[in-house]
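Quick one, C-alpha cells below. Sequence please?
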C-alpha cells in the first residue's frame, strides 16, 4: 500500500536520495513482475522445471517439498499446484520422491539430470557463431512407417535444431565436429544420416533459400523481440543507482526471464549468422538475459539459500558450471 510523501523545502541528503531510488526500483520491479505474470501466466509444471533447472539442479537437485512450495508462492502458484506438478514430473521420469515421516523430498533422476544438462548448454553458453558450411542431413523412414514413430522422430529432430527441407528430409548446419546428440538416439531402422556440403552449381538453388520454409524464423523473431522489450524494463530497474535489490524480487525476476528466454531459445535452431536475417534479435535476447541474470544473481541466491534453510537444510554448494554461466556471474 502506498503512503503519503511529506514535502520538504530542505535539500534531501544523499542517503535519502539513495533510499528513494531503491524504493522506486523495488516498485518498478514489483509492477514488472505483476504485469509479466498477468500477461503471460506460466504453467505451474513448466515454471517448476525452470526453477529446478536454473536454481535447484546446480545445488544438487534435491529439495524438500515444503521449501519448493515456499519458492513458488511469489509466482502465485499454491501448494496444491506444486504438489500436482511434482507428481507429474515424477510420473514422467524427471523426479524421484522419498518420504521422511510426513515430509517429502524430491530429487532429480539421472534421466532428469541429463535433460537439464542438455538444456544448460543451450541456455547459458554464448551462441556458437562458427560454421564450416557443412550440413547434417537425416532421411527419415517413408510414409509407411507408424505415424507415432514418425512424429517422435520429427519432434526429436526439431529439438536438436533440424528443419524439414522436404518430406522426410531434415537438415541442420553442423555445430562442431561431432554429430548432434539426437542423431545417436535415432532409431536405426529406416533412418539414413549423412554429412554433406553444398556444391555451387550454376542454376541450382542454395539451401539458404529454403531456410524460411524449414524453420519458423518470423515467429521466433517476434517472440525474441517481445522478450527483449520486456527484459529491458526489468534491466533498467535492476541497474537503478542506489538500489538495494530485494532478494525475493531478484529470484522472481531471474526465474521469469530465464523461463521466457528458455521458451524462445529451445525453439531456436541456432542457425549461423550467414543463414539469418541481418536484424536477427537472438543475440540481443541473449545479452539482455545475461546482463539481468548477473545483476540479480547474488541477491537471488541469498533468497534461495534462506528458503531452503527454512526447511531444515541449507543448499549444497553449487556445481562447477554454475559460476561459468553467461561467461561468468561474479
Amino acid at each position: 500500500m502506498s503512503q503519503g510523501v511529506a514535502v520538504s523545502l530542505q535539500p534531501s541528503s544523499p542517503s535519502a536520495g539513495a533510499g528513494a531510488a531503491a524504493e522506486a526500483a523495488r516498485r518498478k520491479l514489483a509492477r514488472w513482475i505483476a504485469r509479466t505474470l498477468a500477461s503471460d501466466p506460466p504453467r505451474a509444471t513448466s515454471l517448476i522445471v525452470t526453477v529446478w533447472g536454473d536454481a535447484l539442479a546446480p545445488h544438487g537437485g534435491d529439495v524438500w517439498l515444503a521449501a519448493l512450495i515456499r519458492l513458488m508462492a511469489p509466482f502465485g502458484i499454491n501448494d496444491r499446484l506444486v504438489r500436482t506438478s511434482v507428481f507429474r514430473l515424477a510420473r514422467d521420469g524427471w523426479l524421484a520422491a522419498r518420504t521422511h515421516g510426513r515430509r517429502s523430498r524430491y530429487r532429480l533422476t539421472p534421466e532428469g539430470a541429463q535433460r537439464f544438462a542438455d538444456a544448460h548448454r543451450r541456455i547459458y553458453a554464448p551462441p556458437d557463431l562458427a560454421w564450416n558450411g557443412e550440413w547434417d542431413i537425416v532421411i527419415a523412414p517413408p510414409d509407411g512407417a507408424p505415424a507415432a514413430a514418425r512424429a517422435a522422430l520429427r519432434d526429436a529432430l526439431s529439438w536438436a535444431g533440424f528443419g524439414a527441407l522436404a518430406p522426410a528430409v531434415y537438415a541442420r548446419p553442423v555445430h562442431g565436429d561431432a554429430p548432434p546428440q539426437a542423431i545417436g538416439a535415432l532409431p536405426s531402422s529406416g533412418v539414413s544420416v549423412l554429412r554433406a556440403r553444398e556444391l555451387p552449381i550454376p542454376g541450382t538453388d542454395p539451401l539458404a533459400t529454403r531456410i524460411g520454409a524449414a524453420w519458423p524464423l518470423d515467429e521466433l523473431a517476434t517472440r525474441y523481440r517481445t522478450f527483449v522489450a520486456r527484459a529491458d524494463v526489468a534491466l533498467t530497474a535492476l541497474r537503478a543507482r542506489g538500489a538495494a535489490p530485494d532478494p525475493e524480487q531478484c529470484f522472481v525476476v531471474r526465474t521469469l526471464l530465464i523461463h521466457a528466454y528458455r521458451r524462445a531459445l529451445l525453439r531456436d535452431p541456432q542457425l549461423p549468422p550467414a543463414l539469418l536475417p541481418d536484424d536477427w534479435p537472438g543475440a540481443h535476447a541473449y545479452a539482455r538475459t545475461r546482463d539481468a541474470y548477473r545483476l540479480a544473481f547474488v541477491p537471488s541466491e541469498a533468497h534461495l539459500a534462506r528458503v531452503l534453510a527454512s526447511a531444515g537444510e541449507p543448499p549444497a554448494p553449487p556445481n562447477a558450471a554454475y559460476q561459468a554461466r553467461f561467461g561468468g556471474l561474479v
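Confidence is low (pLDDT under 50) at residues 1-14. The two ends are 35 Å apart (CA to CA).
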